Amino acid sequence: MSQLVEKINSKSIKGFLKGQGALVAFAVLFVLASLRYEQFLTFLNISNILRQVSMIGLVGIGMTFVILTGGIDLSVGSMVALAGVLAANLSGQGMLVAILVPIAVTALLGLVNGLVITKMKIVPFVATLAMMMGIRGIAYISTGEVSVRVDKLSTGFTQLARGFVFNIPIPALIFVLTVIAASIVLKYSSFGRHVLAVGGNEEASKMMGLNTNKIKTMVYVISGALSGFAGVILASRLGAGQPVAGEGWEMTAIASVVLGGTLLSGGVGKFSGTFIGALIIGIITNMFNMQGNINTWWQNVLMGALLLVVVVIQSQVAKHKKK
Amino acid sequence: MQQNLEVNKQDAKLTNMHYKELIRKYGALAVLILLIVVNSVFTPNFANINTAWNILIQVSTVMLVALGMTVVISSGGIDISVGAIMAVASITAAKLLGLGVLPAMLIGLLVAACFGAFAGFMVAHFKIQPIIITLTLMISVRGVAQVMNNSQLLNFTEPKFSYFGLHRFFGIIPIQVVIMAVAIGIIYFVVKRMTFGRYVEAMGDNYHASRLSGINTFMTTIAIYALSAVMAGGAGLLETARLSAADANAIGRLVELDAIAAVAVGGTPLNGGKANVIGTVIGALIMQILTVAVNMNNIPYSYALVLKSIIIIVAVYIQRDRTA
Known about the structure:
The structure holds two protein chains of two kinds. By secondary structure, chain A is mostly helical. Chain A has 14 helices and four strands. Chain A has helices spanning 2-19, 21-36, 43-68, 76-90, 95-118, 124-143, 155-162, 170-188, 190-200, 202-207, 212-238, 249-259, 271-291, 298-322; strands spanning 148-149, 164-165, 168-169, 240-241. Chain A starts with a helix and ends with a helix. Chain B has helices at 2-42, 49-74, 82-95, 101-126, 130-148, 159-166, 175-193, 195-205, 207-212, 217-243, 255-265, 277-296, 301-319, and strands spanning 153-155, 168-169, 173-174, 245-247.
């Protein structure tokens, strides 16, 4: 009897651990870092980590929407650059203009992504790969390949990334609020359910009368807008809009989504997972910064290895569920 | 009246079909010829044998990677680790030059093959999506390459190795061009004439059916990714030989995207199926000629990026399978 209980217990614990691969990795890293570095578990450091991951995190939230429908968006890094350049250019026109116009522009480019994918029937990987090159080109052309300084008088705009509310960095706050909002949309709105339906089985949702093209287009608009927001924050943080910014962000964003347990096949996933995925990446970077004397290139090796372990665990879970 | 219109439309459709089929088949080739003709007329010094050799030398890296990528994509997969694999093969060979040039190069290729086989194994055994597993390799293998030489540039003077980047047969034909031609021939043969190629396409068309029909999908998948990695490794070695230096940070950066773009422009469907090897060759040439032409006309590279993005979308659009 007691053996049976033990067996059940160990099984459910194992099952729980498998389902929460990212959370476990996060907890282990967190405890490890707290024990190893005394500066780690301070309010300042934690809020710093949150601020650092907020931009890639915002991109990751948009990417999660896209991946939930079974798509992918490689153009996000270029959108970050273009939005940053635009924001820096517009920073003299007042804070709202500098924030909203770039976001509107990248949302529009997201719409182009969506239309190319749904109307021209080009697979998301190729469509957004082309857009990635094109938008990066536009960012370069619009600046003459040099970075643009943010207007020194626009203190409001610089506060966006450097300011605090209740001692919490504003970007961190934006990130956390976006995660919460996205989770609510996914769980309680009809749009959220439609996103999951399209990702789960597109043919079936089409037959159920869903306008799958509209839903698919929408997620690219969201991804574009959030990437634009990240770009605006980055420009505010750096005090400049750089046309080279955001290079490789698409892969980091995808990594944070995958770490968070969202399946690339679509239909399954959650935003809290992406949040934790982004935090894991942030903590690893933070630990390597604190270690100082260690070869920083090990960071990539470790990150890749960790990603691999989480992915393998998740694949086992998926196999289990299928059975 | 309306009916008449409808009939007319159908007629137009029928005559269009043939024409559309032609575009689908030869669209990329037409773009390539157009690019060459336009540039020969308008770009100074373009119609010149040295320019041609230069374009071919420059395209050789992406070409080798794209050939391997064609096989991977045809099988329904994707390999974004190729750039990192180029780096690790390059730095391995450069580090081991003391063992002799050929052993060093072979070990470099072997290391690349091992990473590729690992990716294939993970795809076949754990059913991990190719893009994820190759993403983890892209991050970590690049890290390994960087760690191997503390992320420093590794210079070497080894004429026997540099031979693979600088030699010209009969004083004219660059060695890369010969290697590239041989590689195109081999991949074409593998895809068109060997059962392996049939297996790959069958898996890309319908994985489960091919498995049920007795294809050893496990070993085939491993072979596919190993092949892609060896091609990438070879590209890395050529690049290293040409520069007489190995730079783990720079080598192969973003080559995966150029290679995938070449494959897409070449008409191999991204969700698997028929591998269009000649299409990939044309696709890679289109992208390279565009870059060179923009450069020779003193137009900033940024404009080439925008042009490339338009060409990718247009080429993929006109070639997409309408029956799907």
